[in-house]
Amino acid sequence: MPKIAVIGGGIVGSTAAYYLSQKPDVRLTLFDDDQGQATKAAAGIICPWFSKRRNKAWYRLSNRGAHFYPELLADMAKHGLSSKAYEKKTTWIVKNKAKTADDLIEIAKKRQVEAPLIQKIAKLTPQQIRDKVPQAQTQATVIVTDAGAIVDGQALCQDLQTLLQAQEGEIIRERAQIEAITDNSLTINDRKFDAAILAVGAWLPELLQPHGYNVDVRLQKGQLAVYQDQSSSQDLPLIMLDGEGDIIPHHHGQIFIGASHEDDMGFDLTADPSVLAAIEKAAADFLPAIENRQAAEIKVGTRAYTSDYAPFFGQLADHPHIAVASGLGSSGLTSGPLIGKELAQLISGQPTEMTLADYDVNRYVTKQ
Ligand SMILES: Cc1cc2nc3c(=O)[nH]c(=O)nc-3n(C[C@H](O)[C@H](O)[C@H](O)COP(=O)(O)OP(=O)(O)OC[C@H]3O[C@@H](n4cnc5c(N)ncnc54)[C@H](O)[C@@H]3O)c2cc1C
């Protein structure tokens, strides 16, 4: 029975490990040291359809990733756990310029053909905005859609890990080091495996560099503020503000405001509320009470970006028994579960659904 290791228990690694644990012919070990995980700090927005980003491969992955969530949830329910980590949510997209809003509506309507999750796209009148959020003071144009969702990344990983343990998958909560790689095996923390998935996000360079690989991944710090507000969190829609920052009302009474995008900070996980001040000011148009409140918590995580902002996943050219993923950037909670499932399929020799050449690892992971 092949022994497969997954290193990294964020959204990619937890999903990959969960799907591998369901395969009767696999012995699965997940390593995770839980350091600054992006997934745990993520805002949780699943809504890729109103982006002007031109990269078509990115859009295909994000659109399919968003549609994959209900399938993942159904698979998990079939295996005995009804996860509450994913919630469909009415979503507002706020644009200061009416023309930008109109352009986005046009883009999203074209995308509707291949996005059955989008049933509704409309513009709200000022009265409709106040009917839903009476305290709103915005002059901006607001688009409303029913397609969006909010995910609690941390809770989803926990649920996936509960299911993999129920299938006798093993979880080792320690830092993994690859000590040796041969043509058909690898040694991780003194244990031999037949194959591995490296789903370590921003940490891929340090895991692979000792084995002679260059990895095109840079780091970006992200912070968001968490406010406790049981009543508003139920009534508020998910509000994607113009520019940086969003209001994300999670179902357990927490409202997230963020997130920041800070380059050149390395793996710094220090909470710095001053960075969030501008985002909180913009959020106050919809949530004035926020301005005088103290955040209950600041979440901090490290995103991984490639030099052209494109994510990658697949097998290493010279070692196909090692599959990797990284560079998911600020939309990795959207594409992560799909990528995790694709990696599980790939490493166990089964067909994948995306065109792997579009996300070619070997453009970003090269031999020194
Ligand atoms: C503040 C913030 C807000 C975000 N908001 C959104 C959002 O709203 N929507 C969206 O789609 N995306 C969002 N993202 C992006 C998304 O969170 C990430 O792209 C995604 O979670 C990356 O998942 P991952 O599994 O690749 O990596 P990670 O979640 O970083 O997981 C990697 C794991 O590997 C572990 N690890 C690393 N090296 C080792 C080792 N050697 N041994 C053992 N374990 C190791 C780490 O400790 C970590 O637990 C946000 C990110 C941040 C930081």
Give the distance, in angstroms, between the N- and C-terminal Cα atoms: 34 Å
Number of helices: 10
Cofactors and ligands: flavin-adenine dinucleotide
The CATH class of the largest domain, by name, is Alpha Beta
- Beta strand count: 23
Rg over C-alpha atoms, rounded to the nearest angstrom: 21 Å
Strand count, sense and barrel status of the largest sheet are:
9 strands, mixed
Structural class: alpha+beta
Tell me about this structure.
- This protein has helices at residues 11-21, 38-41, 56-78, 98-111, 126-132, 153-166, 204-208, 230-235, 277-283, 332-347, and strands at residues 3-7, 27-31, 45-46, 86-88, 91-95, 121-124, 141-145, 149-151, 170-172, 178-181, 186-188, 191-193, 195-198, 213-215, 218-228, 238-240, 246-249, 254-258, 262-263, 297-305, 312-315, 322-326, 365-367.
- With 368 residues, it is an alpha+beta fold.
- Helix 1 runs parallel beside helix 6, helix 1 packs parallel to helix 10 (332-347) and helix 3 (56-78) packs across helix 10.
- The protein binds flavin-adenine dinucleotide.
- Flavin-adenine dinucleotide binds at residues 7-13, 31-35, 37-39, 41-45, 153, 175-176, 199-203, 207, 222, 224, 258-259, 301, 303, 328-334, 336.
- Its cofactor is FAD.
- Belongs to the DadA oxidoreductase family.
